[in-house]
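Look at one record.

>
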Amino acid sequence: MALPERNAVVLLSGGLDSATALAVARWQGYSCHALTISYGQRHHVELAAAARVAKAMGVAGHKTLTLDLRLFGGSALTADIPVPHGRGLDSMASDIPATYVPARNTIFLSLALAYAETLGAFNIFAGMNALDYSGYPDCRPEYLAAFEAMANLATKDAVEGKGRYRIHAPLLRLGKAEIIRLGSALGVDYALTHSCYDPTAEGRPCGTCDSCLLRLKGFQDAGMADPVMAAP
């Protein structure tokens, strides 16, 4: 069994970025405990993708926690608000889109922190990215630094000096093509992942939402075919 300091909680959505972050954590020698959040998201098919990725990567454990952010709404992913389609890359990088879920990463990281504390683990991995992302304020380096500081003020083990929590965002300063190359080198099977915000009734990617467009551009820039978009 891995020592507690080599345990890590990994937020696993089932998307391209979180699967790559999980691969990085494994490569760095962590025993990974994957945490997936079912929050009432429109693209709930990503939950099945998370299960596929967790199984393929042989995680130490995989928990899916259910909460319903549809109660609050406020996002195209949790309310009857149209998902943006066909936006330009400049708009994605500058505007906060309708797919922003209020405080989502703060909620998710807080849940990961609670899970980590029960494991005696001090490392949390997440797939946030500050370059090829959709303008979300909770993907910025300063946000993650602030959350890490808070985690070390708010938890029993940190206050008692048993360890210091670290929020690892290994993809934070990588472009999408760099992320795909990294994950491919680490053996990520991207055919298992799901990225689309507005999938069809059959669970197929729409190809035109922000997430699909960023994914497509990433594979094109990496000189690779996307196994999900290319599938029939």
Remarks:
- The chain has a mean pLDDT of 93.
